[in-house]
Every structure is written in structure tokens, then in C-alpha cells.
Amino acid sequence: DDWSKIFPGRPVKNIEKYRSEEFQVKGTGVWLHYFQPPTDFVPGDESCKDKPLLSFDFDYIVPGIHQYAPWTPRAWRHTDAPYILREDLSWDDWFAPQRKHAAEIVERYIRFNPMMERRAKCSLPNPEFSLGMHIRHGDK
Known about the structure:
This protein has helices spanning 30-34, 58-68, 82-85, 91-109, 114-123. The protein is mostly helical.
């Protein structure tokens, strides 16, 4: 395969390559100002002591996962990968499974914290309206 079309697969556990490292987490955790944590993970937790930390070169993310991983929901169909491009489908037919998959991910992992829910209920008392979120390119 062309190097530009490679994306990472599932990690392979290779204990020989493990090394211990400490990380200092700085900042206020802006995510927590608006959302609940997606998991109960806490940096430095004993349960994670023997688990690997994976890091990727930027090429594995863009174009890697960003364009070529078949399990990634997409907000566009501009790519070289024919299974994504799908010019035989209308925009609505192409976007429907992308939106469904993205909605499942959001529903599973992203929840507003109680303060934001209270604010949303005050400003949007009609349940037919919803609070939206925009994720900019560099914030993923």
C-alpha cells in the first residue's frame, strides 16, 4: 500500500517494549468545564500502571485514521479512498450512516456536566431544541 494510505491497527502487546515514564498534566482541564469525563480514568491510577501509552506520528492521524480508517465517521467525502468517495450515492444517502455512527459515539462518550445541563434547560426549555457542540479541526 501507498504509505499515505496507512492507518494504525489494534495495538499489539509487547511487554519487552514497555518502559516506565511519568507525565505532568498541566492546565485546568477545560473539557471538565463543560462535559463529564468520557471514562473514569485518572492519570497515575494504579490500574493503568502496566498498560502501554500509545503515541502516533501525525501521518497516522492525518491522512491515516482521518481519511482511510473504515471505522471513522466522516463529515465529508473528499478523499482518494473509493469506499469513502461513493459517488454512486446521493449526499443524504452517504451522510446517513456517517451521522448515525457519529451520534452513537457522541451518545456513548460525551455528556454535558450537571452545570451545563441546568444552563441548557434554562435557555432551551423546549425539549425539541438541543444544545450543539462544534469541534474545530485542531481540537480533536
